[in-house]
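Support request from a user on the community tier.

User writes: "When I paste my structure tokens into the form, the page sometimes reloads and wipes my input. The last time it worked, I copied everything first. Here is what I submitted, just in case something in the input itself triggers the reload:"
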């Protein structure tokens, strides 16, 4: 199952310039007011969109919407136990804040954090998450002691998605497997030109390690994986949104569409990509390895039709979890570029490598985006 709502404005350096919802609908939108106008004109809704949007409960007495509870997400969140990755990052932190604010009755939230031990993970939880400006809004919900109350819900778990067992202490892993209902994977290496070996480990293998762990969680009811809209080829056209299949590259997809001879298309074999990275690492000098791995990632991405190492390794991560999911309820969300918070808990919160706006009114992308 793929659920997707992705919006991207036409800033100069990034492609695709798309709005995706349900089956991909692709249009050019230059600013928020154009977007508002677009959506207010129902005639512009493409065929097929209606069927793809899950209708919210009917208005009327007693509906969740009527009671100000949206479509039931906050209700779903309540009382459940979570394992969240990537919470020291931009999006993961926003997710945690929103969850703690809108569903204060959530159960325990295990937060997987890269750290050498429990103490170091706890320290990162406190300094990078709890003490963040973003979480101050929780004072309105939990009162002056919000930090203590929030800490009682969050459990710092040292670990790393690159490791097969997530690097978790086995006792803690058993406890999480027994308790957890929802896994949210926001961990990723988000540098566009990351070393190929590093990006393969966190973006391609990482999600599969987490999915394997999900299979040991007896009460799992959702595995939510955050991907990126740029796993698609980004051409301006209407396409049916679909999962990425193993072995299918952006190059082969395009060739399929125009019915060309497939023999010249390089096949995408994920195991092969991993072996290639390992082999080349062994061949080059230590002093050259970082540079060579960066170059290799970008080269491999281009060969298979992706613009950079990040979107290519994220695409392969999707392929693996889709093929391995078995009966795990899997949702893949594909956002485009998230600039900052829009309204909640306050407008304009931003962190890390996302783009920033220069004072003279011109948009400029920071290091993460300047490779596209
Ligand atoms: N922000 C956007 O515009 C955007 C758009 C589309 C999709 N996404 C997706 O949304 C997710 C979050 O993005 P973001 O902007 O929040 O990225 P971010 O700020 O770079 O955060 C990445 C998070 O992943 C963690 N992480 C990286 N490697 C890990 C590993 N091996 N094990 C455990 N944790 C690891 C990082 O931990 P450390 O702090 O220890 O490094 C950090 O918490 C990613 O999957 C990204 O692909 C983001």
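"...and here is what came back when it finally went through:"
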């Amino acid at each position: 199952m793929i659920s997707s709502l992705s919006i991207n404005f036409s800033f100069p350096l990034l492609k695709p310039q798309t709005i995706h919802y349900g089956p991909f609908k692709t249009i050019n939108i230059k600013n928020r007011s154009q977007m508002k106008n677009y959506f207010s004109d129902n005639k512009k809704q493409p065929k097929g969109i209606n069927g793809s949007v899950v209708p919210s409960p009917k208005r009327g007495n007693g509906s969740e919407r009527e009671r100000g509870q949206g479509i039931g997400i906050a209700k779903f969140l309540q009382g459940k136990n979570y394992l969240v990755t990537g919470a020291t990052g931009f999006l993961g932190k926003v997710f945690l804040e929103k969850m703690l604010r809108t569903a204060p009755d959530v159960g325990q939230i295990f937060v997987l954090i890269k750290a050498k031990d429990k103490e170091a993970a706890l320290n990162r939880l406190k300094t990078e998450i709890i003490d963040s400006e973003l979480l101050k809004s929780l004072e309105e919900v939990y009162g002056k002691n919000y930090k203590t109350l929030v800490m009682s819900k969050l459990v710092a778990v040292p670990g790393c998605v690159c490791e097969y067992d997530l690097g978790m202490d086995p006792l803690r892993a058993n406890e999480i497997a027994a308790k957890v209902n929802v896994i949210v994977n926001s961990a990723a290496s988000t540098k566009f030109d990351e070393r190929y070996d590093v990006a393969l480990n966190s973006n391609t293998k990482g999600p599969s390690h987490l999915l394997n762990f999900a299979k040991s969680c007896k009460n799992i009811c959702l595995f939510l994986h955050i991907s990126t809209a740029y796993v698609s080829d980004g051409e301006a056209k209407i396409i049916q949104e679909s999962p990425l299949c193993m072995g299918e590259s952006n190059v082969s997809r395009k060739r399929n569409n125009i019915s060309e001879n497939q023999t010249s298309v390089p096949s995408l074999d994920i195991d092969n990509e991993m072996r290639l990275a390992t082999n080349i690492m062994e061949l080059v000098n230590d002093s050259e390895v970082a540079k060579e791995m960066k170059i290799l990632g970008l080269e491999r991405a281009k060969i298979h039709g992706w613009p950079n190492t990040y979107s290519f390794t994220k695409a392969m991560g999707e392929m693996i979890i889709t093929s391995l999911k078995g009966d795990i309820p899997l949702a893949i969300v594909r956002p485009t570029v998230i600039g900052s918070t829009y309204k909640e808990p306050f407008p304009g919160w931003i962190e890390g490598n996302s783009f920033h706006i220069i004072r003279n009114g011109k948009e400029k992308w920071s290091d993460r985006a300047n490779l596209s």
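Agent notes: The reload is a front-end session timeout and is unrelated to the input. The first strand starts at residue 5 and ends at 7. The mean pLDDT is 81. Escalated to web team.
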